[in-house]
Amino acid sequence: MEKREKSQQLYKQAQEIMPAGVNSPVRAFGAVGGDPIFIKKGKGSRIYDVDGNSYIDYVLSWGPLILGHAEKQVIAYIKQALSKGTSFGAPTEAETNIAQMIKRAFPSMEKMRLVNSGTEATMSAIRLARGFTKKDKIIKFEGCYHGHTDSLLVKAGSGAATFGIPTSTGIPYELTKNTIVLPYNDIDQVRAIIRSSHKQIAAVILEPVCGNMGVVVPKDNFLADLRQLTREYDILLIFDEVMTGFRFCFGGAQTIFKINPDITCLGKIIGGGLPIGAYGASQEIMDCVSPLGGMYQAGTLSGNPIAVACGLKTLQILQIVDYKKIITMTEALCTAIEAIARENKLDLTVNYLGSMFTLFFTNKKVFNYQDACSCNTKNYAAYFTRMLESGVYCAPSQFEANFLSFAHGKKDIEDTIQAAKNALTSKDD
Ligand SMILES: *Cc1c(COP(=O)(O)O)cnc(C)c1O
């Protein structure tokens, strides 16, 4: 593998003009050490850095690129849209087309609004839930990430329910005091809070399958119990499917677990690599949105024609692919890594579902954020660095999901398993 001189040089310049040289924190490699690599281009399952190194990519722009980099049909379609102009701030037919396509995959979204990011989608969903129920409190789960909107940027202390301790500075207590944070996969604590405070609780928001504490799968009845409880107490259930939407099937976690939430948030894959988000619900709930109703939400670039074209072509392709392909490959990769861990008696738990996975460096099962935090992040960092050196680009943090795309092939998986074997069993530090 060649050196990374040019990346290092570019990173130096970037650090002088942007905090930590990046436009989103985890890109700075703070959790794994070393300097970030600067990307020149991507093609299929691979990214290429400015020094001429190539890597099999399991980050895929943090999820959106389920078809791989620079997919031919998608690029051609964007170019066509681009030739007609970049933005109008007025309705276009393509917006209706993509909304109809999304509704086909997510029937619970009878009506929807397009926005510009996942953050905007969850922010709007919370406002909508509060407007509709005329209640203020929301329940979120520890380790679930819903973008960086103030009231959702809250973690919990350890133990039982913690009320509103912000994870970020700059968030007044007034903006988080209505956020109740509970441990994921613990229905008893949810039930207790809902029974005592349901008159104040507008909504429960969660990642129906977590990706943002690493991949954590809901326990058997967790989602069904949440659905039943929220329905019983007139609380809205919000599925944040920004990551899981179109990740397992032409639908979301709600499709595979057969649970209809009240509000769904989407992003990532529905933009195919351009900035987009969406939130949707039943007609009754969505008609509360301005100008039909009193809940205000707007956007200069919302429904942007280039982003919509990229998303629409991506979804058109996803409608006809066989998801089994990436699910089977993910399973093959993860079971091979589990086998390596077993043979070498390593403290390693591999969580995966569909085409997303995380290696947790612990001997425990990982069901919530506290379990995830018991991992040896130093071991993860060492693994990450060795993989990078072997030409495999993994998520640069223990608490992130890795993804497969339809551009990944058998050879990619074989090479990755070989690299993982070397990385996990290598003795030198
Ligand atoms: C990525 C993500 C978001 C935030 O989306 P942005 O487009 O980064 O604002 C929200 N929720 C979940 C579950 C995500 O994975």
Q: What are the distinct ligands in this entry?
A: pyridoxal-5'-phosphate
Oligomeric grouping of the chains: single chain
Radius of gyration: 21 Å
Task: Give the second-level CATH assignment, the architecture of the largest domain.
Answer: 3-Layer(aba) Sandwich
The N- and C-terminal alpha carbons lie at a distance of: 18 Å
Name the structural class: alpha/beta
Q: Predict the CATH topology of the largest domain.
A: Aspartate Aminotransferase, domain 2
Compute the number of helices: 14
Low-confidence stretches: 156-162
Number of structural units classed as domains: 2
Largest sheet: 8 strands, mixed
Shape: globular
Strand content: 15-25%
Helix content: 25-40%
**Lateral arrangement of strands in the main beta sheet:** 4-13-12-11-10-5-9-7
Q: Please give the CATH class of the largest domain.
A: Alpha Beta
Give the total of beta strands: 17
Mean pLDDT: 95
Q: CATH superfamily membership of the largest domain, which one? A: Type I PLP-dependent aspartate aminotransferase-like (Major domain)
How would you characterize the overall build of this protein?
- This protein is α/β, with parallel strands linked by helices and 429 residues long.
- The chain folds into 2 domains: 5-70 and 322-425, Aspartate Aminotransferase, domain 1 (Alpha-Beta Complex), CATH 3.90.1150; 72-318, Type I PLP-dependent aspartate aminotransferase-like (Major domain) (Aspartate Aminotransferase, domain 2).
- Helix content is 37%, strand content 16%.
- The chain has helices at residues 5-17, 72-82, 93-105, 118-133, 173-176, 187-197, 222-232, 253-256, 283-286, 305-320, 324-343, 369-373, 377-389, 410-425, and strands spanning 39-43, 46-49, 54-57, 111-115, 137-141, 154-155, 162-163, 165-166, 179-182, 201-206, 236-240, 263-266, 277-281, 349-353, 356-360, 392-393, 402-403.
- The strands form 4 sheets. The chain has an 8-stranded mixed beta sheet with strand order 4-13-12-11-10-5-9-7, sandwiched between helices. Strands 1-2-3-16 form a 4-stranded mixed beta sheet. The protein has a 3-stranded antiparallel beta sheet with strand order 14-15-17, with helices on one face.
- The longest helix is centred in the C-terminal third of the chain and has 20 residues, at 324-343.
- Residues 156-162 have low confidence and may be disordered.
